[in-house]
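Title: Prediction job returns without error message
Component: structure pipeline
Severity: low
Priority: P3
Assignee: unassigned

Description:
Job completed but the reporter wants confirmation the result is attached to the right record. Sequence as submitted:
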Amino acid sequence: MTHIKLTVDGQTLMDGDLGTWKRTPPTAIQHLLKPGKQPEPYLQAALGALLEASIKGTDAHIEATTTPTGWCVRVTHKQPVVYPVDATTTARGRKGNVVGQ
């Protein structure tokens, strides 16, 4: 399950399993998800990064920093664990086994 940590100006708004978030958004950002609400541009970028992590199935730490003259969003993805597979095929068409398990 995808794990997201969302930090804005040093305050952690979310640090948990994305499956939990799908059911109940963190209270700190619930108001941003209401119809007609226009989130700040840095939160739009952060929510885009959250969506990307969800689609790719990667854990992510999304850090947004604001200043009086602008903002910055930094996204760090943790790659999912991928086990190497022995891709040989037998005469019966069965695929190989996962290596190292």
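Comment from assignee: result matches the submitted record. The CA atoms of residues 44 and 94 lie 46 Å apart.
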